[in-house]
Amino acid sequence: xxxxxxxxxxxxxxxxxxxxxxxxxxxxxxxxxxxxxxxxxxxxxxxxxxxxxxxxxxxxxxxxxxxxxxxxxxxxxxxxxxxxxxxxxxxxxxxxxxxxxxxxxxxxxxxxxxxxxxxxxxxxxxxxxxxxxxxxxxxxxxxxxxxxxxxxxxxxxxxxxxxxxxxxxxxxxxxxxxxxxxxxxxxxxxxxxxxxxxxxxxxxxxxxxxxxxxxxxxxxxxxxxxxxxxxxxxxxxxxxxxxxxxxxxxxxxxxxxxxxxxxxxxxxxxxxxxxxxxxxxxxxxxxxxxxxxxxxxxxxxxxxxxxxxxxxxxxxxxxxxxxxxxxxx
Length: 329
Hints:
Blueprint: E1 20-27, H1 32-41, E2 46-51, E3 54-59, E4 63-69, H2 72-84, H3 87-100, E5 106-109, E6 113-114, H4 122-131, E7 146-150, H5 157-178, H6 182-186, H7 195-202, H8 210-220, E8 228-229, H9 231-237, H10 239-243, E9 258-259, H11 273-287, H12 290-305, H13 316-328
Antiparallel strand pairs: 1-5, 1-6, 1-7, 2-3, 3-4, 4-5, 8-9
């Protein structure tokens, strides 16, 4: 697989600083200590243990990598156990974490890394691979993914509309390009946007207000379970508006997309984070190309208005060509 990270057309954020990206990797096969050691060994980082279910590794430049059991109940129990310091509770937490390893992933949450320095993450991935991390394909019950949290280049409605429309016309192609695991498709975590909502988004103009964008999203997508989850972004932009509709402690406000479609294929020694990133970059490039985006938007609206479609979406070939061009640079 291709190991070079594609370049984004928009490299700076609204403050004129290099955009950053955070990745989250879900996997099984390792306990918390082994995973933390693998991450720390990638850059001689310091491991700081918070509880039996959470720890972090300090990176001297980028900040903390968080390694945790991706199970809120277990994390809350571990925190209470740490406060009470009862041996019986610690034994229960230890048993829970051991059992959870079979079905609940360990998650490595990477700190934001500048888009022009993403290759520093390759050593983290290779260390986890060598330690025995197991990804999506290793079991029928491993519905593990990679989440990409890309900082927006600007937080104005025009920029956001361009990205949302790019994702909407590409979402079915993205499923194919990532080869999204059938088990993950059956689960609700990465549902695509409803057709009605896609048609609504494709009708937006650069003048569409942020309030309408957020309200429309909350009406049709009042959940984290979307292939591109916008709740963290909208909570950052207007927390009161979001909290009036969605009360979910797992929604953390931040000026990023929360892209959840890629599989975590870390069990494959040839797999690289770059392969997931480069597919996402098709959305990046389409959002920055208003002429191509307008053409695809019009094709998508017409296609969705048909009563019956016997052929694949005709613009998917063009999306595949964009991806091929990005991956060959």
